[in-house]
Each structure stands twice: as structure tokens, then as C-alpha cells.
Amino acid sequence: MTDTAKPDRDEAQRLRYYSASQWTLIWWRFRRHRAAMVAATILGIMALMGVFAEVVAPYGPTSRNASYLDGPPQLPMFCDRQGCSIRPFVHGIKTERDPITLRAISVPDPETRVYVSFLARGEQVRLFGVIPTDIHLFGLDHDKARLHLWGTDDLGRDVFSRTIYATRTSLSIGVMGVLISFVLALIIGGTAGYAGGRVDGGIQRVTEVVRVVPIIPLYMGLAAAMPPEWSTTQVYFAMTLILGLFGWPTLARRIRSQLLSIRNEDYVVAARLAGARPSRIIGQHMLPSFTSFIIVDLVISFPYMILSETALSFVGLGLRPPSVSWGVMLQQAQSVRVIEQTPWLFIPAGFVVVAVLAFTVIGDGLRDAADPYSEAR
Amino acid sequence: MGDLLTVENLTISFRTDEGLITPVQDVSFSVQKGRTLGLVGESGSGKSVSTKAVMRLLPGSAVIAPDTRMHYTAKDGQRVEVEKLDPRSRAIRRLRGGEIGMIFQEPMASFSPVYTIGNQMIEAIRLHREPNKRQAREIAIAMLERVGLSDPATRIDQYPHEMSGGMRQRAMIALALSAGPALLIADEPTTALDVTIQAQVLDLMRELQRDLGMGMIFITHDLGVIAQIAQDVAVMYLGTIVERGPTAEVIRDPKHPYTQGLLAAIPSLDRLNARMTPVPGDIPSPTERPTGCPFHTRCVHAIAGLCSARTPREIAPEPGRAVRCWLHDEAGRSAA
Amino acid sequence: MLRFTAERFVGMIVTMLLVSLMVFIIMELPPGDYADRYAFRKYSGTGVSVTEADIQAIRVELGLDKPMLLRYFDWIGNIVLHGDFGQAFAFETSVTKVIGDKALLTTAILFGTLIITYLVSIPIGIYAAVKRASFADYGLTTFSYLGLALPNFLLALILLYFANRWFNADIGGLFSAEMKDAPWSLAKAGDLIAHLWLPAIVLAWSAVAYQLQTVRATMSDELNKLSVTAARARGVPETKLLIKYPARLAINPVVSTIGFDVNRIFSELPIVAVVLGLTELGELLLRAYLDLDMYVAGAILLLLTFMIVFMNFISDILLAWLDPRIKLGG
């Protein structure tokens, strides 16, 4: 007999808690991590933009606007000297001569208005490369005028559209790289951890060697070996392979040490005595006990992939134009002069920072959520 | 007989995410010079927290209630009001180590692994007794010999991991005593040891306490150990002292149902065939402290409607003894 | 201790051998062989038409017709026995000459970066752990998140930009224009140090962010250890207590990851070098890769990695000296 005066509702909740599965628990704890939820939302939006790049971007990644080179961002507005309107608009562009250099430059013409419309018709594109459509998320009413939300580069290409396409490339390279290194880590770490002994010793040596070589110079060496005549698609897949090929050591070590520590648990020995194949023992009995840790490690390894790709493309050893990734775009922003004259070319760098931050914060949130002892707090 | 340490109405609360929890409530006890007070209770009953409060070693989230009084009489006869000291002050540092020594349950964890035993002993001696380095070393060696370590001149330069568990516990005792405290607080010093070594360490502590004339607070969850070492005993349950008095009398005639339960749970030779009868149920968590008498949820004699509603006061059933239980407080019961 | 050192030393040599094999494989990766590229470089623009026989002659001359394993032993043998790293095609001189004192500059940058990293991360990490959950703590955590997310070349550009605006100075490069080709002197060394701080800060940035988190985490753990409470219960004054007990142990993980930091710094070096116009190994490595001058690239990759392996060795020895528990384990 206790006099706990707690209402039944609490009791029901407690029952739900005790009977929840491991994954449900992790999800509940993760949901409480506000920063991680915000990061996950931002990343989700980025991923969606990348997936539907053809529709979100008003123009193609290589489509040029010869009358607006190195043009500054155009911000849609509602009011100007002529009054206000309900629909957002931008001013038209006119060409003038620079009074000093006498170069032709493009300046906004406050006399003309071009209205922004949503779900506008524009360039003919193929969504996912298959579905033909000419609907874009937004565009300008006027056929000839173009809306450059984030300005243009020296060839008159729309920075906003290119950034959207770059998001697709950079994130997908990250995903592919992580997946490849995950498979490699699973095979290498799994073998070492399951076999133990001399096999483990040998694999540890190799892992040590791979870990000790500085990673970006190593990637560079492999990227430099890509034949110049390769197509952009070939280069793209080679890049994912390169990133994946040397991204595995950290994860492999984690898998190995976890496997080693549970190798002699009773349930593993029982499975072995029952004659199960090694791959089945690892996959069915051993891995599930630390899947959550693997997921955390996978999420945390994304930033390295993204930063590596950006760095390699930045110095011209990664993806090559006409491919467009964050790193490729930043190739145009290698000098201080760019900060002074065309700072909007740095917008892709903001994407890199936000994506890396988001992955790191989500990783931290997941780690807290996956740790059963964090509940004690 | 002078009181070395008097604690009155000690109440400690912690600020946590779930709100304020109070693991120690209204605890009073005293230790005399040259005598040992045994503090008994299950884990989580607030024994360690209470003694840490005396040393002002509680973390920043702990609050000591304003009506708490903790008076300590120093070696020079000065009275120190411990509850008024700033936990970072010089005065409390003089108390720590120099006046009150402390021994912990895990000797391995209470030494820093990267310094030798001697380094840590000499540091304490130089802080409180003897600033000269060479003489401090002499004192340390003598103290190691005193606790029964063979070859103390070599041992002093060893690291904690180079010693066995029993040796480490002896070294820990030497470390606590090296600064010459008048009161020793021993927090479960024998729990982590093998039974045979446990007996040796108990003998050693009893001997040291007698020879050095120290007062001692001996914390344990084992009433059997108390019988061997303590003249006085205080039984704690969920942060309050439910019964206290001279050990011999409390064991012969326990008044509180909890003390009776603890005694019945000690294996004994004359009751080999009888089943041991542990106290039924589990100790509630400090966040779910029962109202009224904290023990009523597990008490077989609980009086319906009274014990669950009102907290019993401390009364003296006999001179020199005290108990908190409605069963023994007829006057209070009829007043209720 | 002697045995421990010897063991680690042998381990270091074995790792270096394996690394050299891997580097050699990377050198062999680019399509076509050296003879083609060599011939192309040598005769391009001269109007001489190169025949297959000419290339074959070059191939024999350079020893490229031998099997790969044999060429590996030739290569590594020449490095170990004669300090000869082979020919730099693009520069038409030996690799050793091309690398020359760039290795020295790289070492200067490395140690400048390491010093900044530890001077900043250790005290601040300890401070953050002691003031846990305070405003300063959250601020530092946020900073270290940013430190890990901001690509270093971007940071380099930002710093360059502000240096240009505020000091109106061109602080790129490692030397001022008049010192660049001067022989080594005290003045030149001073000039180097005056230019070193910018690349050192850029390279230290992410290392600081990383170590800050490590120090803070270990220090928080150590602060809660019983040994700290026990020392406090002996009356050790608070500041001395923090330094002698938890802080002393919080340094161990930093020491054990020195090699990791060197790795991270060298990894970022080529990119930062491009932006800051540094004339050291990282920049040369990138140029060699772009030119497919693989003997130069291989030599640099090997040197950088050897330096990392050597620093790993140093960190092992240091750690054993710092933590008496390690020696016994062997």
C-alpha cells in the first residue's frame, strides 16, 4: 500500500515508456533536443531543394544572361518611388557606361518594374532527368528579363540556381562517400573484430597506415590520377569512390572494437555453436547491439566528406566545370578581390558552413539520444 | 567529556532538473573525543552526504538549510561554526585534513594515479604540519610504517597502481592521518575489500583511533561492523536518523522497527537454521520521499492513518538514547 | 622505459615502410607513364618530333622498364641510402633541390600552429570545464562548433580581407618582397615570424576547436573524480588543486593526439597555402599534382607523412613519461 497520489494518466504514460522499443526511445529523446531538431529541419529543406533542383531553380546551372555579368543580387520589393504593389517586383536592367573605365555595366532601372510570379513558366527542364516540365517555383513575368536573387557570376550565370544544383551534387557526393566507406568499414572492421588474433593485427597495421597519411593530400593524389578526358559523370563517380575509399578507418575501428568486446558474450557463442555462418552471426546477432553508435558515426563523418569535396574542387582537383558543386562554385572566389567586388559569390560557402554545422549538431543530438544513460539527467 | 563535533538540524537539499530534492532532513548527532560514532544505513540514506556537509565538500547545487548548526572544537580549543564558513576560505581548508581527516571507499580512485603515494602525503603534511620537505618525508615514512606497510621507505615512492588493494587502503589511511587530524571520517573504508583484509583494516583503525586519541565517524551499511568498532551508533533511513544511542544498548534492545529489521538481517551462528529476515520492500528514491514517517511504507507495525500522515518527533525512551517512531511516543500520539 | 621506446621506434620504422609503399602506388596511379610525360615536356615547343623509339630510350634511361616492385626498391633505396628523391621533371633538377628549404618553412609553420593550438585550447578548455554551464562555456562551445564547420580557406580569405582593410597591408606569403630571395639571416628569420602568424592562426583554427572540446570533456570528467574530492578534503587550496589534479590529467589526451593534430594541419596545408600564397611544401605538392610531377609529389607526401609518424612516436614517449601507468603495461 503506497499513497502515491499520481493520476492514472501518468501511469499510462509510464507503461508506454517501459514498453517502447529502443528506436522509439531514441526518437523521443532526440525530439527533445531542440538544436538537433532545428538542424534536421534545415538539412531536410536543403535536401529537398537539391532533389527538386530543376523546379526550385529558375534557370539551368550553365544558362547565361549576357546582359548581367557579375551582377549584384536583386531583392524583390513591394515599394519604390512610384508607390507600392501587392505583388513583389524587381527593377529592370539597363546598360550604362562606367564614367571612369568606360566599361559597359548593368545597373537597375528604377523606371521599369518586372513582377515576380510563383510557379511561373520558364525554361524547359527534365525533373530528375526524366519528367519534362517548364514550371519553376518562381520567375519573372516578363519573358526576356531574369530574376537573379543572389546575383550572377562573371559569365552571367545565376548564382541562386547554381547553388541549388550544387547542393544536389555536394550532398549526394557526401551520401555516396559515406555509404561506400560504411560498406568498406563493415567488411574490414567486421573481419578484424570477428576473426581477432593475427588477422586483426594485420588489418590494424593497414588501418594505421591509411590513417597516418594526411587525408586531403592523399585525396589529391588520387584525384590527380583521374584522366583529363573523363566525362563529368565519370569524374563524379570517381570522386565518390575516392572519398569513400579512405573514409573508412574511423568507423572500421569502432566496429572492430565493439565486435571484439561482445565476441565472447554468451549469445554470440551460442549462435556460433549452433553452426551459424559468420556473416549471419555478425549481421543478425552482433551488429544490432551497437547500430545506434554506427549511425551516429555515419552522421558525424558527413562533414568530412563535404569539406573534403569542397576543398578538392576549390583547388581544381575535384569535380570540374561544367559540373557544379559548392567547391566548384567557390573556385571563382579565391581572392580578396572577390570579397570586395562580388561578395555574393561566397553564398555557397554559407551552404557549406550550415550543412556541416547541421550534421555536427544532429550527430551530437543522436549521440545523446542513443546513450541510454542520458535519461538519468 | 568534550564534544568534538556537534551537528544539529542538518538539512541538505539539491537543486536538480526535477526540482528541489532533500536527501538529508533534520539530522543531529555528535562525536566525542576518543570515541567512535557509527553511521549505519542503506545506500542512499544520506550518510555520506551528511559527512561531506561537515567538510563543506558538497557541490554548488547543494543548499544547507539556514537553521543548521555544525560546531567543531579545534585542537587549540577554538570553537568553529562550520556552517558559517565559506567553502573556499582559508579557515575551512585548515579544518580539512588538518583537523578532520577523511577516508573513502575506493582507495584506488581517491589517489591521483600520476603522483606517488609520497608526493600526495608530503603535500598534506606540508600544508598542515611541517613545511620542511625532508622532515615531511620522514613523517610520511613513519606514518606508512605505522599503518603496517612493510618497507615504507620504498613504498613511499611507489604509484598507487603498484600496490594491492589492501595495501592501498592502508596507504589511504596513512594519507588521511598524516596531517594529524583530531577527527577521522571513514566512509565505508572496508566495503571494497576482501573479508580477511577487511578484518585487518578494522583492527588497524580501532588501534589507531585508540592510540592517537582521535574521534571517529565510521560510515557503513553493515551493523555487524559497527558492533566491532563503534561505541555509539546512529541509524539513518532516507535522510533522517531514526535511532541513536550507545551501540551495545541499541543492539541489545533496538527500539525502531527499521533497526530491528537490520539486526534480523545479520547472519548469526545461533540462528543458522532460521531464515534471515531482511527488511521487506525497497528503499524509495529520494525524489519520491513518503510523507509522514519515511519508513511507514516498509514498516510492519505502521499505525494506519498516523504514520503515513505525520512525521514522528525525536524522543528519548531511555537516558542517552533517542528514537523517532510513533510506537514509542504515546504522549505525542494522544496529542495528535 | 628504454624497452618501451625501442618497441615504439621499431613500430615507427615499420609504419614508415608501409607508408612509403602506399605513396609509391599513388605515384604510379596517373595514366600513361613518366617516359611519355618526360618526352612531352622535354621536346614540346622545340619542334622535334618524338618517336616511339625515343620514348623507349627514355624509359630505359630512367629505369622505367623494370618491374614495379624493383622500381620501388630503387626509389626507396635511393632515398634511404643517398637522400636522393629522384628527378623533378617540371623543374629539370633534382627533387631534393626543389624541396630544399621549403621543408624548413613547413616545419616552422607546423610548430607555430601547434604552439598556438595548445596555448589557446588547453587553458580555455580547462576554464570552460570549471565554469561549466556558464555563459562563457556556451559561448566557447558555439565557437568550437563554428571552428569545425568553417572551411579553412574561407577563414584565410576573411582574415586576409580584414588585414587588408584595417592594416592596409598585404600579409599574404611567408616573406616580404624584399626578403624573399635574400640569403638566410636573422632579419629574414624575423620577417618569417612576422608573416607566420596568419597561416598559423588559420591552420590552428580547427585544431583549437577540436582540442578545446577534448580538453573540456576530459577536464569535466576529471573534476568529478574521487581523487579531486579527496585532495580537497585534505585542504589543498583550490587553484593548486585544479592544476595539480584534474588539469594535469586533462592534458594527457591532448598529448596523445599530437600526431592527429599534425595530420590535420598538413591535410589543410595545401588549400590554405593556395589562398595565402605560401611558398612551402603544401603549395608545391598541389602544383606537383596539377603538373603530374609525381616524384616531387611522392617525396612531399612521404616527408609530410614521415613527420606525422615521427610526431606520433614523440607523443607516445611523452605520454608514457606523463602517465606512469603506461610504462608497466608496456
UniProtKB/TrEMBL annotation, chain A:
Which lineage is the organism of this entry classified under, starting from the top rank? Bacteria, Pseudomonadati, Pseudomonadota, Alphaproteobacteria, Rhodobacterales
Q: Which Pfam families match?
A: BPD_transp_1, OppC_N
- Topology with respect to the bilayer: Multi-pass membrane protein
Which Gene Ontology cellular component terms are annotated?
plasma membrane
Q: Which SUPFAM superfamilies match?
A: MetI-like
Taxonomic superkingdom: Bacteria
Q: Which InterPro entries match?
A: MetI-like, MetI-like_sf, OppC_N
Query: What does the sequence similarity comment in the record state about its family?
Result: Belongs to the binding-protein-dependent transport system permease family.
Q: What does the UniProt entry say about where the protein is found?
A: Cell membrane
Instruction: Specify the protein name.
Output: Peptide/nickel transport system permease protein
The record's Gene Ontology biological-process terms are: transmembrane transport
Q: Where is the ABC transmembrane type-1 domain?
A: 167-363
Transmembrane segment boundaries:
35-59, 171-197, 209-227, 233-251, 287-307, 344-362
Keyword field:
Membrane, Transmembrane, Transmembrane helix, Transport
Task: Please give the PANTHER family that the UniProt record associates with this protein.
Answer: OLIGOPEPTIDE ABC TRANSPORTER, PERMEASE PROTEIN (PTHR43839:SF3), OPPC IN A BINDING PROTEIN-DEPENDENT TRANSPORT SYSTEM (PTHR43839)
TrEMBL record, chain B:
Chief localization: membrane
Compartment(s): Cell inner membrane
Whether Coiled coil counts among this entry's keywords is: no
The alphabetized UniProt keywords are:
ATP-binding, Cell inner membrane, Cell membrane, Membrane, Nucleotide-binding, Translocase, Transport
List the GO molecular function terms: ATP binding; ATP hydrolysis activity
Name used for this protein in its record: Peptide/nickel transport system ATP-binding protein
Q: Tell me which domain of life the UniProt entry assigns to the organism this sequence originates from.
A: Bacteria
Fetch the SMART domains from UniProt: AAA
Q: Which family does it belong to?
A: Belongs to the ABC transporter superfamily.
Give the UniProt record's GO annotations in the biological process aspect: peptide transport; transmembrane transport
Q: Which is one Pfam family of this protein?
A: ABC_tran
Tell me the ranges covered by the ABC transporter domain, including all copies. 5-263
Q: Which Gene3D superfamilies match?
A: P-loop containing nucleotide triphosphate hydrolases
Its cellular-component GO annotations read: plasma membrane
Presence of the UniProt keyword NAD in the record: no
How does the entry describe its membrane topology? Peripheral membrane protein
From TrEMBL, chain C:
Alphabetized UniProt keyword annotations: Cell membrane, Membrane, Transmembrane, Transmembrane helix, Transport
- Please provide the Gene Ontology terms (biological process) for this protein: transmembrane transport
Q: How does it sit in the membrane?
A: Multi-pass membrane protein
Record-annotated membrane-spanning stretches: 9-27, 103-130, 142-163, 192-210, 296-322
Please list the residue ranges annotated as the ABC transmembrane type-1 domain. 103-313
Q: Which InterPro entries match?
A: BPD_transp_1_N, MetI-like, MetI-like_sf
Cellular location of this protein?
Cell membrane
Q: Which SUPFAM superfamilies match?
A: MetI-like (SSF161098)
Q: What protein does this entry describe?
A: Peptide/nickel transport system permease protein
